[in-house]
Amino acid sequence: MNSSEWQKSSFSEASSNCVEVRAREGLVELRESDDAHVIVCTTSLKFAMFLQGAKAGEFDHLTTNP
Q: Which residues form the DUF397 domain (predicted)?
């Protein structure tokens, strides 16, 4: 990813309440679309490892109500 434009998941559809991501100055930045002034920065490698865990379902318990 080599874009300074914010990108959101296609699963977010038309929702404005989503997490957005972009690559900027060698880092990956994440923000919530409804709170855009808070930006979290990480490396491409750390982001890739996070995505791998997300795809494997490691964080599924955080998306469901008990």
A: 5-55
